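pinging the channel bc i need a second pair of eyes. not urgent but kinda urgent?? the chain im working w is below, pasted from the shared doc
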Amino acid sequence: MNIAILSRNKKLYSTRRLVEACIQRGHEAVVIDVLRSYMNIASSKPEVHFNGESLPVVDAVIPRIGASVTFYGTAVLRQFEMMGAFPLCESVAISRSRDKLRSLQLMARKGVGMPNTGFAHNPDDIQDLIKMVGGAPLVIKLLEGTQGIGVVLAETKKAAESVIEAFMGLKANILVQEYIKEAGGADIRCLVIGDKVVAAMKRQAQAGEFRSNLHRGGSASLIKITPAERATAIKAAKIMGLNVAGVDILRSERGPLVMEVNSSPGLEGIETATGKDVAGMIIEFIEKNAKPHKTRTKGKG
């Protein structure tokens, strides 16, 4: 098969591993920088151009689209979908998961466990907003934040009011979330492929930090997850419509709570912690499922 990998940097660990896995399994792999590609949006013959020429037809596309280029990246992916390529994760599913508010509302509707979450626009609502999520301590998140950036732990009510007022003064969209103290600064990253959790790791925040992201100095280790955590991760990925997802779960007194569903999960941390060939499993999934024009959403919102 000819497989296109949409990535801005071919030297990144995840991109390199996916290219290696393609070659090892006998496929052709091409890495395409989405911001350097451009499209001919024609109903008769849609095309994607890169480096001055039209790209040949590809059988499958693996999107590794960063959060900062979601709009343009999903447009390019949608173009490949129009051309009949099989998307590992569909453009609609990626857009859905990148919208934190929308993704939480979709999971809440389907009964997935989550921390109590509030969303507001008017500063007059701050008092009730804090009360709604159970009071301080609480977590305040920028809707557009990634990798732990734009996430603040407010340990007192006064601190929470100040941070919320500051974000609202900047016209930023924020979520206010219950702080799960019993998680102890740790979360579980479940890597879902299809309808299976193929790997899981525990991410532990460093001393004095509550964010467990590996980019923030957190450590990763192998963990055995419970049947409830496994089922929750699979359900969350399915609700988003993602064939591959990193589902971040907190262990709480009331069971597993989903924090976030990531449509482009990094492979380095989880492959290192578990010793599993996740990149190979992704290519194997494509081999079993790739068919021309096979998209569940057919390009609909």
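so The chain has a mean pLDDT of 87. and The longest strand covers residues 196-204. — does that match what u expected or am i reading it wrong
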